[in-house]
Amino acid sequence: MDDRAFRHAMGKFATGVTIITTKLGNDIHGMTANAFMSVSLNPKLVLVSVDHKATMKHYINHSGKFAISFLNQDQKELSAYFAGQMKETREIDFHWFHELPTIKEALVNLVCELHDAVDAGDHTLFIGKVTDLEVRDGEPLAFYEGKYRELVSSERVK
């Protein structure tokens, strides 16, 4: 199978959208990621997948901590910005949580200490130990077949 067929097949898996953030010295860095999963309840571990070429790999490796924000459906523009799809530089008004930058009004903000890093193909799987979290009500920003989607409750479809 070729790369295009594989990428197309993986796009059939609907995901939420996250922004991964960290701080190294005075530098803040963030990136959009939909390759996120919960790994363990005890200890509380989560995983994000970061391309070897991504600047975020250096930041997480050297800071030893990172935050994950689950975006709400009104945060498409932030997702596009942190995915590098918008070329202008913006001042982001971060929500600071345990000295880490997180996305304001996200559905969830997690702060993590780096637990492990595993190279897997052309990505690094960063496993974080969740040290604290915040949860807000709202609807998630969903991603499917390369496009943002809105979820419809089965209760509304009757």
TrEMBL record:
<protein>
    <submittedName>
        <fullName>Flavin reductase</fullName>
    </submittedName>
</protein>
<dbReference type="GO" id="GO:0006208">
    <property type="term" value="P:pyrimidine nucleobase catabolic process"/>
</dbReference>
<dbReference type="InterPro" id="IPR050268">
    <property type="entry name" value="NADH-dep_flavin_reductase"/>
</dbReference>
<dbReference type="Pfam" id="PF01613">
    <property type="entry name" value="Flavin_Reduct"/>
</dbReference>
<dbReference type="GO" id="GO:0010181">
    <property type="term" value="F:FMN binding"/>
</dbReference>
<dbReference type="InterPro" id="IPR012349">
    <property type="entry name" value="Split_barrel_FMN-bd"/>
</dbReference>
<dbReference type="GO" id="GO:0042602">
    <property type="term" value="F:riboflavin reductase (NADPH) activity"/>
</dbReference>
<dbReference type="InterPro" id="IPR002563">
    <property type="entry name" value="Flavin_Rdtase-like_dom"/>
</dbReference>
<feature type="domain" description="Flavin reductase like">
    <location>
        <begin position="10"/>
        <end position="150"/>
    </location>
</feature>
<keyword id="KW-0560">Oxidoreductase</keyword>
